[in-house]
Amino acid sequence: RRERQRFVDKNGRCNVQHGNLGGESSRYLSDLFTTLVDLKWRWNLLIFLLTYTVAWLVMASMWWGIAYLRGDLHRARDNTYSPCVANVYNFPSAFLFFIETEATIGYGHRYITERCPEGIVLFLFQSLLGSIVDAFLIGCMFIKMSQPKKRAETLMFSRAAVVSQRDGKLCLMFRVGNLRNSHMVSAQIRCKLIKSRQTPEGEFLPLDQCELDVGFGTGADQLFLVSPLTICHEINSKSPFFCLSQRTLRSEQFEIVVILEGIVETTGMTCQARTSYTEDEVLWGHRFLPVMSLEDGFFRVDYSQFHATFEVPTPPYSVKE
């Protein structure tokens, strides 16, 4: 079957783009900090460099302007004259004085004299503006670097889901695993069935979301994700797959979105990993191969068999049938 458009990719990226916002796009500027954090790295670095470059050039121009208006540029080498900023002869020297002040390097060669009230005011303004810009941009970069998005790449989901019997009940199952030794604290898993449907009133819902029970009532959705686990959804009368059989699976169109959330043990930040399964990725009458084995004093996980399945006898009928 030709691969159709997904709502959520296998890597967890949501295929949704917002368009025709009109005047609502101004809402992004009202929350500028979050907008910058959400940007891609190349845009963040570009804004970071441009902001500092423009701010440095503007402030250096203001120091040069004060020296120019006072006539300090022409009399800077006169030992009997008291300039606003000592040893500022041109724009490069004014720029170096600004950098020394902003970075608190303090070489001591250039300094503000006490006979320059406008320079003192500009110095105070520069200190306040520099602190605000540093706190905003450096805070933005720190938050972006500490985001736990990369942690989700070490959380694995099986490539396919399977339908087979477990404990005498027909179940939809998939596998999750954690590649790192650090644990996911308070890990919880949820599943959403996304399928188009039409209501009895004739309303068409193109992407209707329905919850799939993966143990919410029994606490099975709370995971101790030390070794790979098989997540099970029991197909019963309350399940959206109550009428699903091996024959109807070929003609169905749906998508199962899996959301795994937890707290990263090392950083204490919440991490979310996502994937999805379309009807083509649901294998009827299959079961996952075991990946755990007992070694000398520890359990070993063989991730080469993580996605492997094998066929088992399974009735081709739906639970309703």
Automatic annotation (TrEMBL):
- Which InterPro entries does the record cross-reference, listed alphabetically? Ig_E-set, IRK_C, K_chnl_inward-rec_Kir, K_chnl_inward-rec_Kir3.1, K_chnl_inward-rec_Kir_cyto, Kir_TM
Q: What are the TM regions of this chain, as residue ranges?
A: 45-69, 119-143
Which compartments does it reside in?
Membrane
Where does the record place the site Role in the control of polyamine-mediated channel gating and in the blocking by intracellular magnesium? D134
List, alphabetically, the Gene3D superfamilies matched.
Answer: 1.10.287.70, G protein-activated inward rectifier potassium channel 1
The answer to keyword Ribonucleoprotein applying to this record is no
The Potassium channel inwardly rectifying transmembrane domain extends over 8-148
Chief location: membrane
Q: What one GO molecular function would you report for this record?
A: G-protein activated inward rectifier potassium channel activity
The source's domain of life comes to Eukaryota
Q: GO:BP terms for this protein?
A: potassium ion import across plasma membrane; regulation of monoatomic ion transmembrane transport
In the record, the note on similarity to other proteins reads: Belongs to the inward rectifier-type potassium channel (TC 1.A.2.1) family. KCNJ3 subfamily.
| Protein's name according to its UniProt entry | G protein-activated inward rectifier potassium channel 1
Organism equals Heliornis fulica (sungrebe)
Name the gene: Kcnj3_0
